[in-house]
Amino acid sequence: MFNICTGNFENPPLSVSRQIMPKDFAGVPNGHHHECYEIFYVIQGHIDAFINNKTYHASDGCMIILNSLIPHAHIYPQNIEVERICISFEREFAAGMARFAKDTDILEAFHSDINVISCPISLRNFITDIVDKMLMEMKKGNQGAISIAAALLMHMLIIINRNFRNFELKQQVLNTPAYSRVTEMIEYIRSSYNNDISLDNISKKFNISRYYIIRIFKKHTGFTPIEYVNNIRVLKAIELLTGAERKTVSDIGELVGFNSITHFGRVFKKITGISPQKYRAAKKTSAFLQHN
User: Any idea what the Cα angle at residue 9 is, between residues 91 and 32, rounded to 5°?
Assistant: First the structure.
């Protein structure tokens, strides 16, 4: 992971895993977002994938493409095993790879509005073969292992970006009465995040009990309603902290819906691992280093 405060890699900037998750696997306990790019590929089984503001059903051969700073969760079934691949790589690492790809945008798929695709058989075999080679290199840990894994990842990204618009789109959004209510709540939160939103507010607006709201929202998104509110607010704050208009941290916290700078700082640090002030300073330093 790239530490934006020190400008160094604390952990390998590329993470690759291939695992079989057991029937009772709970998955990541909470929905989340991160600054790295992520590819999640279902080899066998199925999951529900919450991405930004929708929940998709992803089965065998589905690839989930996640841009950085996208709220998401992988929700595993409790009755079957799921074999999956997960690849994540840091933005700075991706920028380094992109500089070598002069004739194509290797991140085009990540910046599109397509999040879930169904891969043809030929691509499925290609993905598992590439990932097995990456894992073998990284397991050995020989000199240049990360570089070889990066070259293999570049190969995969080029093939994905060369073809992804021709793949069968797998935008199979869940369609149940409970999920329809969750969708309404998500729309309300995203349009009103900068106002006073509490569980009581949501309960009164939709005439549903607090307990039921928490249960169905968590089930379909991986977030509690308030976790989702806070993630949306923090993402909006990041836009303002890194934007050209130099608003104060206190003003930004108020603009995105926090009632005090203390609360803003506490929530921001819990989600990002760093305070708003340090985040802004680190991003400014990172941008300076990249342009000099």
Answer: 50
